[in-house]
Structure formats: structure tokens, C-alpha cells
Specification:
Length: 138
């Protein structure tokens, strides 16, 4: 997405969180780990790399929710579209993964995409296109 001059940002969690996700945004329940952590599946990242890092919910969070919030993105227009492409893993135990949009003039988060545990125990990929005439967070 377009934020402060960078046209796009690749985020792979190999060394830290990416520019779009600040350390502050790593809410309780989320951990950065890899497939060798001994925490159960997934045992590799979406490329099949066992030492590749990804974000995961800790096992203590099975019965509650945890959120991630991006930095502020600038308004979109015909020149600056926002596409967020992400890989995700939904296990049999997990509930629902939801992507929400919060525009700066609104107090509420609007759900723009979600998936539940029907595609189980495999990496999937999705791309979301966002249009907003004002600053927003995802």
C-alpha cells in the first residue's frame, strides 16, 4: 500500500516485523516464530522453508481474539491503488481470520474479508484491493 513515498513493501518477518506493522501493533497473543519452534503446525512458512518466520497466535489464545493493526496508509486514487497480498494458515482449532478497514473519520472497523477453518492445515493466499478517499488502517 502507498505510505509515505514507498510504493510497496514486502513483509516476510525474517528479521523483524515489516514497515506496515510496528512493534506496538503486535498485540498480546501474536508471536513471531518458525516451523522449528516446537509449537505444532505449520512446520514451515508458505514457501516450505522450515526456518522461515511467520506470525502465529499462541496456544493460550484459542478461546479469545487478537488483532494486528497496520500503520496509517494514505488515501488511494487511480494512481495509488492499495493491494494487500497475504499468506495465511487456518488450523482446525482456530476460529475466523478477519481483515478489517478503519477509515480515520470512523470509529468502527468495517470487515472487508474473512475466512473460517474450512480450508484446514494448508497455506492459502489472498489479495485484497482497498479503496479509501481518506487515511486508513487495516
Amino acid at each position: 500500500c502507498f505510505n509515505s513515498g514507498s510504493s510497496w513493501d514486502k513483509c516476510d518477518f525474517e528479521t523483524s516485523l515489516c514497515k506496515a506493522l510496528t512493534e506496538f501493533s503486535l498485540q498480546p497473543g501474536w508471536i513471531r516464530r518458525n516451523g522449528q519452534s516446537g509449537m505444532g503446525p505449520p512446520y514451515s512458512d508458505h514457501k516450505g522453508n522450515e526456518s522461515g518466520y511467520f506470525l502465529s497466535l499462541s496456544s493460550e489464545m484459542q478461546s479469545s481474539s487478537a488483532s494486528l493493526r497496520t500503520n496509517v496508509f494514505l488515501p488511494t486514487d487511480e494512481e495509488h491503488l492499495c493491494q494487500i497480498r497475504f499468506h495465511y494458515w487456518v488450523s482446525q482449532m482456530s476460529g475466523t481470520l478477519i481483515v478489517g478497514l478503519q477509515k480515520h473519520s470512523e470509529d468502527t472497523v468495517t470487515n472487508i474479508w474473512q475466512v473460517s477453518g474450512e480450508l484446514q492445515n494448508q497455506w492459502n493466499v489472498n489479495t485484497i484491493t482497498i479503496n479509501s478517499t481518506e487515511k486508513y488502517e487495516v
